[in-house]
Amino acid sequence: MTSATAGTGRVNEDFTGAVPTAAVLVDGAGIAGTESICRHGVAWYASRLGGSLLGLLSVVRDRSLTALLAEAIARVTDDHRRTCDVTNPISPSAAVAILRLSDGRAEHLVLGDAFLVLDRTGGTPSVVSDPREVIISRSYQSAFEAAAEGSDEYHRILRDLRANRNQPGGFWVAKDDPRAADEAITGSCPISELTSAVLLSNGASRVVDRFRLADWPEVLAVLASSGPAEIIHQVRQAEARHAVPADDATIAHCTDLTGAAGNCG
């Protein structure tokens, strides 16, 4: 596993961790003003949610990933309901990716703009993503470009965009409502069909979907030969070349999936 903060002095709002049969990645969503309504912050939310998921995945084997995510969201929300405005549109939220090995199958879940890539033996990788937030954000792009940043109109458009979060017809993330877990993208396949699996935050997936430095088979090849840090290094170089603000970037590369427990590192 490798996780790199967006810059010196910044708090990493990503989280990743693993237990013998599962890996979790949480990509916290930071929005300006969050600190005024939640004293804990986005990094706290991401790590608390990720830690709760790992605990549940360690001991609960007979419930779906959707049910476990819903319980984890409920637990974290209860942890700060009394001190923070958890239902506020800008309270901390996060994208989530989960991989679990169980009874010969690899189960997966993605909610929000994280990525999970399944490296299929002798075949094309399967890319699991939830494009709804990206699609809806693009529909606001021209309006943002026409409005002066920081103006009343700019903030009105931003409020309209945020109003789509965790709403029917909008996009879904882990936040305060456990029912958001029901909107996650889920699936499974035999472990024997996989060579490896990769969980990425959207700061790391830029290597493919923003900068187009590689396709997913090429990313898997680099991971196998050089590890996650090399992918993040390439992303940072591209951000510098294109003057794009850096984002927290996190990768969990899971190998030897046919072994007794697999190996995420």
What is this structure's SSE topology?
Layout: E1 2-4, E2 14-19, E3 22-29, H1 34-37, H2 42-59, H3 65-80, E4 93-102, E5 105-111, E6 115-120, E7 126-129, H4 132-139, H5 141-146, H6 152-162, E8 185-190, E9 194-200, H7 206-209, H8 216-226, H9 228-241, E10 249-255, E11 263-264
Antiparallel strand pairs: 1-10, 2-3, 3-4, 4-5, 5-8, 6-7, 6-9, 9-10, 10-11
Description:
The protein is an alpha+beta fold. 35% of the residues lie in helices and 25% in strands. The chain contains nine helices and eleven strands. The protein has helices at residues 34-37, 42-59, 65-80, 132-139, 141-146, 152-162, 206-209, 216-226, 228-241, and strands at 2-4, 14-19, 22-29, 93-102, 105-111, 115-120, 126-129, 185-190, 194-200, 249-255, 263-264. Strands 1, 6, 7, 9, 10 and 11 form a six-stranded antiparallel sheet that branches. The N and C termini lie close together (5 Å).
Mean pLDDT: 92
**Helix residue percentage:** 25-40%
- Low-confidence stretches are none
Distance between the termini: 5 Å
- Tell me the number of helical segments per DSSP (H or I, 4 or more residues long): 9
Major sheet size, sense and barrel closure = 6 strands, antiparallel
Question: Which percent range describes the beta-strand content?
Answer: 15-25%
